[in-house]
Design goal:
Two copies of one chain form a homodimer.
Chain A: H1 2-17, H2 19-28, E1 41-46, E2 49-62, H3 64-67, H4 74-83, E3 90-101, E4 106-109, H5 124-130, E5 138-142, H6 148-151, E6 167-171, H7 172-178, H8 181-186, H9 192-202, E7 209-212, E8 217-219, E9 222-226, E10 235-241, E11 244-250, H10 256-260, H11 273-290, E12 293-296, E13 304-310, E14 313-318
């Protein structure tokens, strides 16, 4: 069918030659002014429990070629980005919060960037409402760690609590680090504002903060797993009901193309990159061996699937989208 | 942190030992009776045009180990399935229809399995409504081919047209084949009911069927590309606006794990497997070279992304889900 190749070329040529004509035709028909995207939530079951992935946004961020990978040559990073069809000028960073209806209450893992964080993020509240979840019904907010894109949504800039009826569970090591004046004074310049943000965002919850350690069971079937490295007290959560298990990873990996595929990459966002790499490999090895469903905070929505060992890293196998929960 | 590995094991053991306790706790809290999934639609722009992927369903189908791959050993097929974390006892087949607002009218590519096709499929109409698209507003239904999961949604079993105001565009070779009594009598037993279904589903549109050939422009920027093989007159559609191009592939590939990764696999669903393979490679080579966004009818929802050449086949790079169109 040589005709076909020719028709493709002709179509492309015609399009290039007469874009005005096509635009005119489009304008005549008056397409809808505002196009409404589907709401950014996705539900699935873990045993008898219902988990909901909630999109907080997808935001343009500086390329790894600008922020740098501590232990890889820019040429190698660039080759890896091109292999994954990633742009080299920037990347799009997805943010995804997880909710869990435990039957006793509504639990939220992290809170997104916050409603006032700009046009690309802060969609958590809207997507919760679309999913039939009321922020006022949240009984427990469980934090993986305190980086701004995770704690931002706890409160508004004026100090209003977004989850007025929730207890906030935090890793004890994470809390100790970010509330320590000595750590703040020793921290690199760029990290200091985060200490101030931690104070502001947690202030409305002063009497409702619960510090937890490794292995603590926060709700029936919800257990903390210490995964230090990305931040000093980073915690991953295991949700189990019957034989079904889900891991809410937090920032155990950034985008899959970065350090799921390249677990050895030491990114600028990892506070202790050596520890972050060891932790990442330990958890992903287990997730691959036991075929545990995972939610990655920075995996593209709906942000859940399974990992397979491949080469020195891992491959993400996204779970199929099902219209039925 | 040996503690952590231990706590994982303990958690698993606890879960296995006391599932009744957990179920009881869940029951006490009275979780929502019916859990509503997010609607199955996803919108994105092609230049100034808006495309909408619409999920018709996700249905359990016999494994390739039962239906067979004509030119591959079962052991090789099984190894490939396991590599992709696919089950070997069955597979889940996604069905996804594409809509395009051309500015002059609303175009639909294929129609899904039909509203009466069982509990796992037939969600097209509901998802159209969720996406703000009215079946009565469809001006043109454009068919890739006539297999039952593509034409089923044209009409109800009682003969009611689902798209009362639409013209139906069909490939001339596809029409010729499925309306030929000789072909029907020569067809394998299992394929004969499809001839009857074609008669029933197209009957309500008798005066509104437009036969098209390779290269025909159906709407501004929408062009037919003959991609024969999967069926005798299978057609893929190219949508172009400005420099943006989208290919609505139809069944150029089934699930990506099948013949995107293994373009050489000759599946039972391909009527002329040799031609289907050649066609597939030609289009995917071009899609990979030109980095053209594609929608695969049987790719997991939201069913769109880019293909990269890898080994003897192709790798799918799903497009990121964006909350903004």
């Amino acid at each position: 069918m040589p005709m076909e190749r020719r028709s493709l070329a002709l179509a492309a040529a015609a399009t290039l030659a007469a874009p005005a004509l096509i635009r005119q035709a489009t304008a005549q028909g008056a397409p809808p002014a505002a196009v409404q995207q589907a709401p950014g939530f996705y539900k699935f079951k873990v045993g008898g429990l219902v988990a909901t992935v909630l999109q907080d946004g997808l935001a343009r961020r500086p390329s790894l070629l600008q922020t740098g990978v501590r232990n890889a040559e820019p040429s190698a990073v660039e080759a890896a980005l091109r292999h994954s069809l990633m742009p080299t000028t920037h990347f799009m960073n997805p943010f995804n919060v997880t909710a869990l209806d435990t039957g006793r209450g509504l639990v939220l893992f992290d809170t997104g960037n916050g409603r006032e964080s700009g046009p690309e993020t802060g969609m958590l509240a809207a997507n919760m409402r679309a999913a039939g979840l009321d922020p006022a019904a949240v009984t427990q907010v469980i934090m993986t760690h305190f980086h701004p894109d995770h704690i931002g949504g706890l409160a508004l800039n004026d100090g209003t609590a977004v989850f007025p009826n929730a207890e906030i569970a935090v890793g004890e090591r994470e809390w100790a680090y970010w509330t320590d004046a000595g750590e703040e004074s020793r921290a690199p310049e760029g990290r200091r504002p985060v200490f101030a943000l931690v104070r502001r965002r947690f202030a409305p919850y002063a009497n409702r903060i619960r510090q937890i350690g490794d292995g603590v069971e926060l709700a029936p079937g919800v257990r903390a797993i210490a995964t230090y490295g990305h931040s000093p007290g980073h915690i991953t959560y295991q949700i189990a009901d019957g034989s079904d298990v889900l891991l809410v990873l937090g920032d155990l990996s950034s985008r899959p193309e970065f350090n799921l595929r390249h677990p050895n990459w030491h990114l600028a966002v990892d506070q202790d990159p050596q520890m972050a790499e060891a932790t990442r490999r330990r958890i992903f090895d287990r997730a691959a061996t036991d075929r545990v469903r995972c939610i990655g905070y920075h995996w593209p929505f709906p942000s859940n699937g399974y990992v397979v060992k491949e080469g020195d890293g891992y491959r993400l196998v996204p779970a199929d989208w099902s219209g039925q929960v």
